[in-house]
Amino acid sequence: MTIRLGDNAPDFEQDSSIGKLHFHEWAGNSWVVLFSHPADFTPVCTTELGLTAKLKPEFDKRNVKAIALSVDPAESHQAWISDIEETQGTVVGFPIIADEDRKVSALYDMIHPNASTTATVRTLFVIDPNKKVRLSITYPMSTGRNFDEVLRVIDALQLTDSYTVATPGNWKDGDDVIIPLTVQDPDVLKQKYPKGFTAAKPYLRVTPQPNK
Questions:
Q1: What is the C-alpha to C-alpha distance for residues 209 and 178, in angstroms, rounded to an integer?
Q2: Where are the membrane-spanning stretches (predicted)?
Q3: I need a surface site. Which of 13, 62, 169, 187 has the fewest CB within 10 A?
C-alpha cells in the first residue's frame, strides 16, 4: 500500500511497549510523528529514539505526539528502552509499536525489499489531527534522520494551515513568508497581510510571518 500526501492515515490496533494500542484513539486531536526503525538494540536507532525523547518539550508546544515502530516484540522494546535512557541521558516518553506480524509496516509501506525483505527502513510520517498524512520522508538504514527538519516542517504546516501563506526554501519559524499566487485582490492583500509585502517579481511577494 502506498501512502500519499493528503491520504487518510490508516488506523490499526497493535501491541506496543505500553500495551495494546488503537492508533487513531491514541492520537486523539494531536498531530503525530510516526516513524519506523529497522531493529531494536542497533546504534543509529538508539540515537534517533534518544533525540525524539529529548524533543518532547518541543513536540508538546506544537501539540505533537511521537510514536515509533519496528518489527521486534514488545518485550524487546521494553528492554531496549532501558539502554536508550542510559546511553542517551533521557526518558523515552512515547510508545514503540511492536509490529511482529508486519501488519502496520504493510499498511504504511515501511518495508522496502531492495533494502531489506524483513526490516523496516527509516520511514517517517507527519499526520495532522484530522488523520491526514501531511509529510512523508524515507531515509536509508545507514543514515539517521534530521529531527530539526521534522520540527521545521511541522512549524511550516501549522503556520500555513492558519494563514494564507507559503514558506520559502530553508524557512525557519520567524522568517519572512511568501504570498500565494491565488491572492491577487488588492483589498484582500491589505486585509490578510497588514504588514505589507515586497515583490521582487509579480509572482514573488514576500511578507513578514503573520504570527510574529
A1: 9
A2: none
A3: 169
